[in-house]
Amino acid sequence: MVIENNSKKEELLNIARDVISKELALLRDYGISDEEIYKFVNSVTSHYHPDETKRLQDLSDKQDALWREANDF
């Protein structure tokens, strides 16, 4: 589903922000340190960073090429 309406995108992002903020607050309530939460959030969000996405795609392409080469033997 592609959302082209900017106001709908903004609404969905605001909802997501609220949900994520509540969940992160729960982690803190359960005694997880701010540093651990910060590292966790960075590990999750880095997956969506364009550079990381490209790196993962390149790695996947290389692995696919190795499998194809191995299957040729």
How would you portray this structure in words?
The chain has 73 residues and is mainly alpha-helical. The protein has one domain (7-72). The protein is built from 3 helices and no strands. It has helices at residues 6-29, 34-46, 50-72. The longest helix is centred in the first third of the chain and has 24 residues, at 6-29. The protein is flat and about 55 Å long. The mean pLDDT is 91.
Beta-strand portion reads under 5%
Order of helices and strands: HHH
Radius of gyration: 19 Å
Which overall shape is indicated by the principal axes computed on the Cα atoms?
flat
Q: How many strand units?
A: 0
Helix content bin: over 70%
| Overall number of domains | 1
Based on secondary structure, the structural category is mainly alpha
Distance between the termini: 42 Å
pLDDT < 50 runs, ≥5 residues? none
Question: Largest sheet at a glance?
Answer: none
Mean pLDDT: 91
Q: What is the count of DSSP helices, taking H or I runs of 4+ residues?
A: 3
Task: Throw out a few tags for this protein.
mainly alpha; 73 residues; 3 helices
In short:
With 73 residues, the chain is an all-alpha fold. The protein contains three helices and no strands.
Secondary structure layout:
Blueprint: H1 6-29, H2 34-46, H3 50-72
